[in-house]
Amino acid sequence: QAHPQVAEVQEEGCAALVNVCSGADGAGLARIQRAADAGAIEAIVAAMQAHPQVAGVQHNGCLALGNVCCGSDAAAFARKQRAAGAGAIEAAAAAMQAHPQVAGVQHNGCLALGNVCCGSDAAAFARKQRAADAGGIEVAVAALQAHPQVAEVQEEGCAALVNVCSGADGAGLARIQRAADAGAIEAIVAAMQAHP
Q1: In the chain, at which end, N or C, are there fewer CB atoms within 10 A of the end residue's CB?
Q2: Using an 8 Å Cβ cutoff, are 157 and 144 in contact?
Q3: pLDDT digits (tens, 9 = 90+) for 59-104
Q4: Per-residue DSSP letter, 168
Q5: Alpha carbons 83 and 179: distance in angstroms, whole number
Q6: pTM above 0.90, yes or no
């Protein structure tokens, strides 16, 4: 927070948060929550917004958001909602749009979108719609198309589409159709064929 305009500080700060906010055990989840309580989500999004053309900031920022927003307990869903409120969905989509040929940004961007949009309550469906409105469906499909031989991009791209495109209401069905219109069906089948 003290050096928002120094890209190197932001890039390495996001990288440090990636490492500190890893682990699905009790200690890892406690660290993730502690980071969120300290303002990590907002700091990550601010770094990404301040340095949109610095691929390293976007790469590490998306991965840090993905880590902080993992989980399926009440605290995790609160972090996902907090991330959405801070602009994480738009930041991840913008990162992917700005760096389409950087496989790491595409992988981590899909991870962030998928984790933030995971869930099946009303708030989760609002996050899914927010991701669609930010171009999240199209960037996930574009990631699949641009990096067909990178299995990790294919996996996270498919996972992002699973989470963003779920829902049986009118909005959910529109997201599903939007994915099909963007070429998701062919991209998903190609991913499955390329990585049997």
Answers
A1: C
A2: yes
A3: 999 999 999 999 999 999 999 999 999 999 999 999 999 999 999 9
A4: S
A5: 23
A6: yes
3-state secondary structure of 156: helix
Gap between the Cα atoms of 64 and 67, Å rounded: 5
Nearest CA among 93, 95, 69, 96 for reference residue 83? 69
Between the CA of residue 172 and those of 25, 81, 102, 126, 161, what are the distances in Å? 33, 18, 30, 10, 12
Rounded Cα gap, residues 7 and 120, in angstroms: 36
Residue with tokens 């399926």: 72
| 165-186: pLDDT as tens digits | 999 999 999 999 999 999 999 9
Q: How many CB atoms lie within 10 A of CB 26?
A: 8
Q: Any residues with CB less than 8 A from the CB of 137 and at least 6 apart, and which? A: 131, 161, 164, 165, 175, 178, 179, 182, 184
Q: Hunting for tokens 């984790």 — which residue is that?
A: 115
State how far the Cα of 34 lies from the Cα of 40, in Å rounded to an integer: 9
- Check residue 32 and report its DSSP letter: H
- Stated as kind and residue range, the H or E segment containing 79 is helix 74-86
DSSP state of 10: H
